Amino acid sequence: MQNPENRSACGAELQEKLWAATVAAPETLYQSTWRDYIFAEIWSRPGLDVKARYLIAIAGVASNGNPSDSLDHYIRGALSNQELSVQELREVAVHSSIYNGWSSGAVIDAAVSRMSQALNLTDDGFKPLAEKPWEPSDRLQRGADEFAQVMTFPGPPPVAPYFEGGILNFVFGEVWHRESLSQRSRRWVTLVGVCDSAATSPIQTHIYGAMASGNTTVEEMQEFVLQYAVHAGWPKASYVQGVLFDMAHKIKNNLTWDGQPKS
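Structure tokens predicted for Carboxymuconolactone decarboxylase family protein (263 residues):
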């Protein structure tokens, strides 16, 4: 038998810890759902680590146009609890720009600046996108290699500006291999972006790639869907859940993302 007082106490404790702030008692029913459901019953679940939940929440807030104070709460909490560093969060801003648009990256970057200053944290600058000259053909090849490693199947040929200048040249040729943010961390930001897009193929391929690469487990992806629903809403999460069932079945049966037997 569950006790409502215990649930509220658990939620209040987690909310203050994860936001790294004193949180007033709820004054409305809506405010109480943050304490009694989102924190007490979602963030408390053991199937996904806290760092991953922060990344999903930060990307979700930025992608869905939530108030800036919501983003500040998550970023302050991630920094204060040492789940993410300033440098990692700067990378999150860039990665979110790719999958949610540069306006999304802008609000994350601004929140990182606000919260790092408020916490008196040092921002040590950033490693440039490119530090030395390169051959365009080499960068394209590096992008193709990174795509295959991340997605677990070959990328598109450079037959259009979007494929050449976007996917191969920049997204996988420069951003995905940057060492300041792990591939697993980039997965969560990417998954929020592609799931928010409602674009069928990107959702399918990225959910497949996340599991087939070993970056995530099926169980972690199940938790992702629930955490993702907090800021995206239940209808989007419902579709994502269906895709997850399908992609997990294909991986279990040694099939490609589009259902072909692996050679």
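The radius of gyration is 19 Å.
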